[in-house]
Amino acid sequence: MMIEDYDDVHLPKYLIRIFNNKRYMLQFIATGQLYMNTLDFFRNMEEGFQGDHKEGKLIDESMHATLEVSSTSDFRNPDIVLKDVECTINGYVYCFFAAGENDINVSEGKLYYNPKDPLNLKDAVLRYKKEDETQDIFIVVLDAKKAIQAIEQQFKTIEFVGYQGFVEYVQEESLPPRRIIETISNRPWSIAFIKSQRYEYQKEWRVFIDTKPLDNHAELYIKNMDKIVLGAGCIPATEILK
Hints:
- By secondary structure, this protein is of the alpha+beta class.
- It has helices at 22-31, 39-43, 121-128, 144-155, 177-186, 225-228, and strands at 14-18, 33-38, 57-59, 65-68, 85-88, 92-99, 104-107, 110-113, 138-141, 161-166, 168-170, 194-196, 204-210, 217-221.
- The protein has one domain (3-228).
- Helix content is 20%, strand content 27%.
- Strands 1, 2, 6, 9, 10, 13 and 14 form a 7-stranded antiparallel sheet that branches.
- The relative contact order is 0.26.
């Protein structure tokens, strides 16, 4: 998945990132740092909003074997028989809410929640907002295309392969075995972009680095992030418009 796979019509209008610490948010704006956790990090989280024990997995209900690889480059044997299998991949991931033109309302430097709130954004933000905070701790990248292009440029500077794109949401354990085998054989990295349908409200745009994790995190940097995000801080959010 590269930006060339999407025309302008199908790219998100905005990218939204929620932070559990305002310091991280300000650092994101100032340096453009994408602090990427491993897929294992999310698999081991108990909390249901971010945590998902099936992150980076393809599962056949009738599985009789488990296949786990350090990175998708380990798939090299074309004769391998993959049937009734659970496949788990590893790597680093960074996630955004992908918002369309009508998902939120940005006006005069303020962000207004859509009355229907299709992203469930208000609930998601409130999970991380502390009682003493006067602003919601998230940012809206106003030029999603520019940020996505900047990430593509960063991929060219690292020694590992990077991918980005929309997450595909599927009914759990409903993928036909042929689809599973084809995915594992031809595009194993795309397993990182398949999630359960119960997360569909997030409309996630995901950044993925395909490599065996050597540390508990990896970092990418988007140049001039402060010029892509509105203002020198987060956009204050109002109450839901009536």
